[in-house]
Structure formats: C-alpha cells, structure tokens
Amino acid sequence: MDRHPLPPDAAEFDADRDAVRDRATRSGVVHCVLPAVSAANFDTVRGLAHRHGDSYALGIHPLCTGDAADADLDRLDRALAEHRDDPRLVAVGEIGLDYFVPGLDPGRQALFYREQLALAQRHGLPVLLHVRRSADQLLKELRLRPVTGIAHAFNGSAQQADAFVRLGFKLGFGGTVTYERALQIRRLAAQLPLSAIVLETDAPDIPPHWLYRTAEERAAGRPQGRNEPAELPGIAAELAKLRGIAVEELRDASSRNAIEALPRLAALL
Fold it and tell me: Is the domain covering 2-267 a CATH 3.30.479.20 domain?
C-alpha cells in the first residue's frame, strides 16, 4: 500500500511517470492512493488513478491555502458530489495544518481545515491529514468534527499518537524510520500497536536513508535521491526489523489497517 502526499503529477515524475508506477508494481506495491493538493489537480489525480488501477483523494493541502480561492472549497464540494459513486474516490485529502513552513497564514489554514472536515462529514469520507508541528490543533478540531482516516508522516509525541488512535486514525510511517538519528519516530514506530500503522513513502519526498545525500554531496553535484513507491518494501524491511517481526506480518497488517482507515479500498484490492 502506498500514497503520494505530493501530487502524482509533480514535475519530478514528468519524465518517467509510467515507469515509476511499473517499478512499484514489480517491487510488490499493489495499490497507490493519490491525494490532490489543490483544486487545479483534482482531474489529474482522478485520471491517473483510473489509468493505473489505483485510487485517489480530493482536497486542498495546507501549503496550498495561500494560493487557493475561497471558491475552491465550493469546487471541492461539487467534485466530491459529482464523483460520489466513483469507487476509486476513497478520501478527502490531503488536508491539515502546517506550522513548520514560514510565511503561511495560520488563520487561513485553519479555515480550510475546518471546512474540509465538514465536507468529509457531509460526503461520508475519511481524511488524509498533513501533520507538521500541528498535532494538538488538528486533534482539537477532530473532537468537534469527528472523522477518521490516516495521519500522514506522523512525527508527534506518544501522547499525541495515542490521541489520534483513540479517535480512530491510523498513523503513516515512511522513510524517516530508516534514519538511526530519528529516535522519537523510530521509538513510536516500534512501540505503537501494529493495528495503528500504515506504511507509506511520501514520494518524491522523505527519501529513505539509502537515497539521502548530504549537503556536501549535493554541493559536489550528487543530486538528492528521488523517493518513489518502489522503495516501500525497503522501508517495510527496516520497520519490521525495528519491531522484531517478519516483514510479511508488517505488510499484511499495513494493508489491513489501510482498508480499515479507507473502507472503499476493500473493493479495489
């Protein structure tokens, strides 16, 4: 199971998008969930999902709220209604809050987050959450507007993780768990109930350690390695080792958890 928090129509994949998806299949990734990040790529993610037999989510990413118009929320509402019977539409996302990137308007982010939670409730869909230095604020709104789904690239505390799980969320873990210095995330990924974990890559970002290039390497002309879904089995092997379980057990649990979080996946797998 994999998903792309950046749009799958990102420029990083322009030269070999079909080859990327083929490598994922050959590596054992059976399905990708492709979230939108803005109204401008709603049609693209839907088209790609149908083209490759995958699924998609529609939403407005917090990093895109500065460029989004208020009318884009109405556009999202209409798109969710228009495609409500499309079995490949599995969630509202990627939505959330980002208090790490400077220059973003927190009030505007909060407005789009609240409104998209309301749309998820209205259309009966789970959500894909962007969580970056914002877990407590996300949880506060979820208690008022209860929905479930996946908290992507989770990097909060153990207490915050427990709060998301109690609200019915699964927590996404990817390339970060492969870094020995990512002590908190590795500890969480090792100790959380297996029923709470979903594997992901965040392609093309958050590359596993074997693709990472230091600043010195990049200055010397070695480009940053591009992450892609085919890296998922390697990430799974690292996490399975952390947990002391067979990679097959982790793989099967991640797929079960993804289906529990995004129920429409059950008919697609």
Answer: no
